[in-house]
User: Fold these one by one.
Assistant:
Number 1:
Amino acid sequence: MRIRRLLVATVAMAGASAALAGPASAATTTTTYQSSAAEHTTTYARLVGPVVVDRKDHRVAYVAAVYRCFGEGHLWVSVKQVKDRSKDPRLAAEGSSQISAAWSDSHRNTVTCDGRKHLQVFTVDQTEPYSETSTDPKSSKYGPLKKGYGYVQFCLFDANNTKAPYSQMKFRHVVVPKRHHHHHHH
């Protein structure tokens, strides 16, 4: 039942937008509109704030970003740290997983690619395999994230970026919220 209702709604919306972009109006507006429209059709992403480690599970963390994408989108988010949690430039190089002490990532976050800006919090963890040849999760090879710096890779595939992703790669602060311990005095 729900699927049918969704289909009906989608078809109705498609009809409405087709009517709005009638051949007459399209012909007159395209030329003037193009120059200012370029920035509104480009894919964009910006990391916001620090990487926040989950209070209960330090293998899990949250990465916030503002983004805009088009068509069908797929996102890979990754946070890597070296042993001393510093801004080690080697993390930006190929093969950085070899020197990482902590690595949490995810291909499983959904993105909304409707051409509008979205602020969203993405989750990374250590459940996905640590290499393409292994089925073992990252947690079997890497330690938890810790306070310091992490190298964040935000790689977004969409209609504008089908071959290579639109990428934001930066060192970000990694913060670990304090756990609230409730002491019971008897």
Note: Strands lie at 44-53, 61-68, 74-81, 102-106, 118-124, 148-158, 161-175.
Number 2:
Amino acid sequence: MPGRKVRTRRLIEAGGLIEKTGLLDLEPTRSMGALLSLRDGASDKDQVSKWTALGGRSFAREASARDEGKEPVVLTFRVLCQRRRPRPCARPVSHFNKVLQHWEA
């Protein structure tokens, strides 16, 4: 049995998925019926494959919409850049690109 923190995280994720699909506003009995029908279909491999494809497309559309209009920032240094961060920070917002040998944000 998973630990309490793991279980809590999974419950929060499940609630988030229900909210993303727009099903949060269903009455509890309807939500339960819908979830029970999903449970019954979970043993059908073809159905699960369809669900996986549909979910993947939905997440891809969401990510595309979120990233629309964003451009990467590339910092180039005139001197050879060290792999170590120039100064410590509490929450890193950049990473070192090993191939191009520069920092990216």
Note: Strands lie at 74-75, 95-97, 102-104.
